[in-house]
């Protein structure tokens, strides 16, 4: 049984590794030239894309920014999961906002900007603290501009005047004074069965995810219900098949959707070592019609991204409950090189383990880790 993944990065690699024990073979497509390759060895196969599409039982994606002609080709095979509608909703913030509006799902107050003249009077609507986001191809903080006061509007007007906003509009969002960022990652199969993992608490630095804690601390029944209800409503509206991630802002007892990601997600990497069925295996199960696996979580977990850094001691893998997942990429600033999962019996113990982990890491490359470790050390479950 074969699964074809559009995209050939680390997520395709992790899908391959999770699928192998199930007797499932994963091929990946380099979307820059449509070559088909092994996502682990990087060896290019002799057969072409048309043959790979024919041979695959299911076709899926590892990221949402897939060229539309390729998506249309694969959609025509009837094997694409999630469907093209779902992938495009994740790739285009305008489509995403329409999806949320159509389903009555709360998100940040915003305007869609396709002409710079719309900037006039924008502070009367959204206030003087606004984040502008490119509707396409923006991720990890790229394609975003922050207006911290009305005095920034002039320079932003000049910047946006050089862009083709008709082709790629901007989303102007009122900066939300949220309490924290959380995410819910789960799966839906073709029969409509849904199974969500524990909610993760996410810490970002300069637009990139640095640390996730799962289950998130201080979760109330209200927040848990809202997060899972939002997941179900979006997944069902899209007739979604596979793993879906939804990033949320928590504002008091209310959740606002920040983004949706129609794929396995960075904030779900902790499941590789913290759950019997990780998000990657769950995705394979969903797209192939296997039964969804258990998401029971016996530990508290931390996922620490390794970003733009290779200078750390591999001795960290000797630490109890510590697991390194390395991507094998060429070093580049702000590039995700790998991640480290840490499991513990409780939050205080997890904090202790993160402090021990820091002894093997350059602290300047992990600016949030010490503070989060100390917070967890002081945390007591009530």
What distinguishing features does this structure have?
Rossmann fold; Dna Ligase, domain 1; four-stranded mixed sheet; 12 helices; 17 strands; D-amino Acid Aminotransferase, Chain A, domain 1; about 375 residues; nine-stranded antiparallel sheet; alpha+beta; globular
Report on the structure:
There is one protein chain. The chain has 382 residues and is of the alpha+beta class. It folds into three domains: 2-80, Rossmann fold; 109-174, 2-Layer Sandwich (Dna Ligase, domain 1), CATH 3.30.1490.20; 180-377, 2-Layer Sandwich (D-amino Acid Aminotransferase, Chain A, domain 1). 29% of the residues lie in helices and 26% in strands. The chain has helices at residues 10-19, 49-55, 68-75, 84-91, 93-102, 122-126, 153-161, 221-237, 271-274, 279-288, 347-358, 369-377; strands at 2-6, 25-30, 35-37, 58-61, 110-113, 130-134, 144-147, 170-174, 180-188, 194-196, 200-205, 208-214, 242-251, 254-261, 300-307, 322-326, 336-344. Helix 4 crosses helix 5 (93-102) and helix 11 (347-358) packs antiparallel against helix 12. The mean pLDDT is 95.
